[in-house]
Design brief:
homodimer, 337 residues, alpha/beta, Rossmann fold, 3 domains, 12 strands, DNA-binding, Transcriptional regulator (chains A, B), transcription cis-regulatory region binding (chains A, B), transcription (chains A, B), DNA-binding (chains A, B)
Chain lengths: 337, 337
DNA sequence: TGCATCTGCTAAATGCTTTTAGCAGGGGGA
DNA sequence: TCCCCCTGCTAAAAGCATTTAGCAGATGCA
């Protein structure tokens, strides 16, 4: 069980060459002058011994660890944004890197610890991921490796990966229009006047902005704008129920799928059919959206793509922020045009 | 930006002592004979220089990396079992370890690569996590660090962490009985006769076994057992609809929350009230369960606890499997007794 | 005074790989 | 013949921390 590790020296000895030669051959150096015979012998020896390099020793010498730190507030923790990790993991694997994941709960003390733990391990780069897109607190430690902000921004690190919410907002409105719905639309989750002083996140602000711009340029206005701070199913349910008592909308533009879920419940209770009586569009492409009947058409948060992109940017030393486009997931909650 | 790292030698120099002394003091060795004065000087020097040990160098010498590998098939990837990671991450952090997460999609080639990547980095232990509890394939490589199976089992590694499904099954039945429901119960998701030759997983088999044992010892029988292989909302919906055409059950025991979700939809369409017309109990405590109205009472999968437990066992060199109890999450889908 | 023991500390080896500097021998050109 | 260059390879240093073995001086005891 506790066999000694086989080291490069063992390989070299078996091959009858120096460790220098073995190292050069196994790391695939290009400009070496070692003979084909030497190559063959070293590879054979390595294979027969089952040699695996000691990454710690290599890291010590080269200062490269093929390790990426993924530091997030709640991403791993919450099923909601886990697509970010999934994409990052996949891209890291393709680039033959490995990912250290650290969760901080958004607490500064833990953020410092996480970053220190990562830096101590000579990570080749760090990704700061936020569950909800926002200005992220980054501990004030010297970081001398590439850094990218995922689903968040930081004044200190310019390269970030965010969903293109503005266009997403526009698309939601476009979907309604394409379905022939021009009025009787209720916006569920936000009321510009009531929430005037409040700020959710830059990303959500973009979503609003895209929606409003598209509405305006199409000459459309909302029948009502229903505000609530938390976007949970129960709020969607209550707000929709209340709305139904005053005027039945032709469509509901929901600011996320959980609100839409609540709206479905209220609509169902009222005996209203989706999409014929009232249509819905929403945002996020939460798992829920596909469970609903009929399925909810929604502008998806491209978490997985974003995660991928983050490690790609990290590894390519990019230096500009990137917006990734939100996919339109058409299901059955809008009438066919 | 690219300042040289400060090394132990720098600290020692500033403190006017040897690196030996600095090392001993900073690692907090117990039986050293260094003076209080020396301790103070070294700590002061380390603090003023912002010294951080080079983990690679330390790992090289000590063969300990304070790194745990979390190798899973689909856990990080799927929001479903992400609680496993969450718990593991939290426990690792408490134990001042850091977690490498690797995802394999259940593909042997990737599993080998993941394990090699982990072993190359001198991890102090590895956790093999499976999304669905099952006999897990573990690559046939020499592993000379503690290993625990999380939500799965392996003949090679005896220590595993599994949910106590048998008791969970019993509890679900007990809940029904406690609510005064003794008959008219349909089991949604499994039919013992029809699925005779089929095997889902040991864990699910335990769930069935617990249910049957409890039914039998209470002298109860099912009104019907509805079989379907995949436990998605749409199946729950269809099966429940069909059942409603022949006989209305007093209660539905759903094998997971997604099936229950589908059942709610069918019940709603039929104008039936939960829990007064028909009651439901289910398994998993999926996020969905709390969104339903009324909330779904369910026997939860204790993923987070399991994840925690896995790293605790790993770090304590345990050698026996462990069953973690499934919590009863009471919401509103059963009548109050 | 002489010897053993303790106190407080350090030199040097060690872990494994990468990389720099350079060696030995053969061939070509003058 | 002499010198230079090329080929194919290696010795040794470097990277940073931990750990073993042991040294110098002080103290205790007879």
């Amino acid at each position: 069980m506790t066999k000694k590790r086989v080291t490069l020296a063992d390989v070299a000895r078996l091959a009858g060459l120096s460790t220098t030669a073995a190292s050069m051959i196994l790391t695939g150096r290009p400009d070496t002058r070692l003979s084909a015979d030497a190559h063959a012998k070293v590879h054979a020896a390595a294979a027969s011994l089952g040699y695996r390099p000691n990454v710690a020793a290599r890291a010590l010498r080269t200062d490269k660890s093929r390790l990426i730190a993924f530091i997030s507030d709640y991403v791993a923790t919450t099923r909601f944004a886990s697509g970010l990790i999934r994409g990052a993991l996949a891209a890291a694997e393709e680039a033959k890197h490995v990912m250290l994941v650290l969760e901080t709960g958004g607490e500064p003390a833990r953020e410092i610890q996480a970053l220190e733990a990562a830096l101590d391990r000579q990570v080749d780069g760090v990704i700061f991921a936020a569950m909800r897109a926002r200005e992220v607190f980054v501990p004030d430690l010297p970081i001398n490796v590439p850094t990218v902000m995922l689903n968040g921004t930081s004044a200190r690190f310019p390269v970030s990966v965010l969903p293109d919410e503005y266009r997403g907002g526009e698309q939601a409105v476009a979907l309604l229009k394409a379905a022939g719905i021009n009025d009787g639309i209720v916006l569920l989750g936000h009321n510009a006047e009531q929430e005037a002083g409040l700020f959710r996140s830059e990303s959500i602000a973009q979503r609003f902005a895209g929606i409003r711009a598209a509405m305006q340029s199409a000459g459309m206005t909302f029948l009502a704008e229903l505000s609530c701070w938390n976007w949970e199913p129960s709020h969607g349910y209550e707000l929709t129920r209340k709305q139904l008592k005053t005027a039945r909308p032709r469509a509901i533009l929901c600011l996320n799928d959980r609100l839409a879920f609540g709206a479905y419940q209220a609509l169902g209770e009222a005996g209203l059919e989706v999409p014929d009586d009232v249509a819905l569009v929403s945002f996020d492409n939460d798992e829920l959206a596909s469970y609903l009947r009929p399925g909810l058409t929604t502008i998806g948060l491209p978490h997985e793509d974003m995660g991928r992109r983050a490690v790609e940017l990290l590894l390519s030393d990019a230096n500009a922020p990137e917006l990734v486009t939100m996919p339109i997931i058409e299901r059955g909650s809008l009438p066919r045009a």
